[in-house]
Structure formats: C-alpha cells, structure tokens
User: What shape does this take?
Amino acid sequence: RGFPRGLAVTCPLPKTGATEKLETRPITAGGCHYEAFVGHELLEKSGQLIASAGLRGPRCALIADKTTAALFADKVLASLRAAGFAPRLITFPPGENAKSLPQLGAVCDEMTAVGLYRECFVVALGGGVVGDLAGVAAAIYHRGIPFAQLPTTLLAQVDSAGGCNTGVNPAQRQDTVGAVRAPGRRPDETP
Assistant: This one.
C-alpha cells in the first residue's frame, strides 16, 4: 500500500533578516525520492506542512528525546493542534543507548497506550537517534504507518531524515535492525 507524502523539519534557527520564502527542493537518495521544504521557522509551521503533505491522522505521536522535547516540543505540539491534529508527546532518554530494541518496544507500547491506529502517523522531532528510533517504530507499528521527520541537527538532516535509512542497535550492533523509507516531503530550515 502506498503512504501519503511525509515531512521533516530541521534546525529551528531564528530569522536573520531573510525573507519568509518557503522553497521546495527535490531529493533523491539511495533510490528514495521526496521533496524537502526549505525556509525559516518551520517548526511553527510544521502542522500546516504535514497536513499539506497528505498526512491525516487525526491522532499522531510526536516522538523526541527528553532534551529536544524540552527545547522544541511545545512549538510543534501547538502547530499540530492548530492544523487539526491530536498529537501525543512520547519521550525517551537522549543518547545512542536509546537506539535499542527495549526502547523501541517501549515507544511502540506508548503508541498503543495513546490510541494510535493504522491511519495515524508519527512525527520524529530531534537528531539522528530520534529519527532512527521513530522511523523504525513507524515502519513496524501496525506493519507500517506514515511518518514525518523534523530533524533538529545537520547530521539528522542528511542521515536518518535524508538518507532514508532508520535503524536501532540490538546487542550494541549499529543499526542492524531497521527500515529503508523516504520521509516524503521534508522541510529544512535555512540560516
């Protein structure tokens, strides 16, 4: 079955006198094709962009590590609500150790506890660890639900969000359990 177009946002940098112009750029990476949104203050617009990309929900899980959630989750939750979605925040401890099968199971358990079903979607907010963990969770939950990536680091823009690869580390083996899925449309912040 086909997935609606997805999304991702990166590095929520403040405007520096630049225009409010939103650009869309085609991306091809390892056989994945999608569009990236490029502009300023896209976290505040993420709900609108996700809706325009075809994700419907209305329920969704905003997945972030605790550090990133403290910095940016309120903006994204407000934007998702303003776009008509019913987001639930799911957090986990920061760091590479969180990319584990037990943590993946805990995230999927929370997705079930908040009532996500097949028509719902996942939003990954954070760096590469968040993108990897949330991407795998979206790929396996109900055998695959749509997801959006809102990467907040340069590495996440080109790694889990940009490269279409997501993975977790069973028995400390790097990214050996995972999925290859394009994020769909991806908004990128510009300096």
About this structure: The radius of gyration is 15 Å. The helical segments are 46-52, 66-82, 101-113, 128-140, 154-158. Residues 1-18, 184-191 have pLDDT under 50 and may be disordered. The CA atoms of residues 58 and 85 lie 5 Å apart.
